[in-house]
Design goal:
The chain is an alpha+beta fold. It has one domain. It is 47% helix and 22% strand. The protein contains five helices and eight strands; from the N terminus they run αβαααββββββαβ. It has a four-stranded antiparallel sheet with strand order 1-2-3-4, with no helix packed on it. A four-stranded mixed sheet has the order 7-6-5-8. α2 packs antiparallel against α4. The protein is flat, with a radius of gyration of 22 Å.
């Protein structure tokens, strides 16, 4: 078994070094993208802690189903673990699902130096200018230390009654909120930033 495991680990290490090296070299020659979409990397960044919490807690919760009768002490302990795991992970997973449904087909083009802010829905540009903005809701989480604190959104209210919602699934929206600071930005804080 050890004879098989060692070459696999060495090959994995070489492949990871090659990927990392290519990433560094190509990073020198590419310009940073100004088009933001829901990507795998962004979703992984947002879901890392909730998924880790589930990964650690769910094996303990499996004992509810796979072991025989539990004592009162074990039942109380497993219920407490279930409450903690689901209490931390469920709000973040719910927010992520809601944001994904809202912005899965949205692309944000944002270049503040060129004064460009464009939103595309299903690859069609949503026409609006900065002067069309009546107000902007900037909703963030109350506590910066919770699993769901990175979930925030901007809601752009236009003169014609349309509303455009940009979520944290696209990118960190703090620079966009600063860019729109002269457009009647209303900062709001909530425990859960549901849309």
């Amino acid at each position: 078994m050890l004879a098989l495991l060692r070459p696999l680990l060495e090959i994995s290490g070489v492949v990871l070094l090659l990927i990392f090296g290519l990433r560094v070299v190509t990073g020198f020659f590419t310009r940073a993208s100004r088009v933001y979409r829901p990507t795998f990397v962004r979703q992984f960044y947002l879901l890392f802690w909730p998924l880790l919490c589930l990964g650690v807690g769910l094996p303990f919760l499996a004992s509810f189903f796979f072991f025989g009768p539990l004592s009162g002490y074990e039942l109380v302990l497993l219920t407490a673990v279930a409450a903690v795991v689901l209490g931390f992970a469920a709000p973040a997973l719910g927010l992520h699902a809601q944001y994904y449904v809202r912005n899965v087909h949205t692309a944000l083009v944002f270049e503040p130096k060129q004064n460009v802010l464009e939103v595309y829905e299903n690859q069609v540009r949503v026409p609006f200018a900065k002067s069309d903005l009546v107000r902007v809701e900037w909703v963030t989480c109350v506590s910066p230390r919770l699993f769901w604190s990175n979930y925030h959104f901007l809601r752009l209210h236009l003169r014609d009654g349309r509303t455009i919602t940009l979520t944290a699934l696209l990118t960190n929206l703090m620079p966009v909120a600063e860019f729109l600071r002269n457009a009647n930005v209303e900062p709001k804080q909530r425990w859960f930033c549901f849309l």
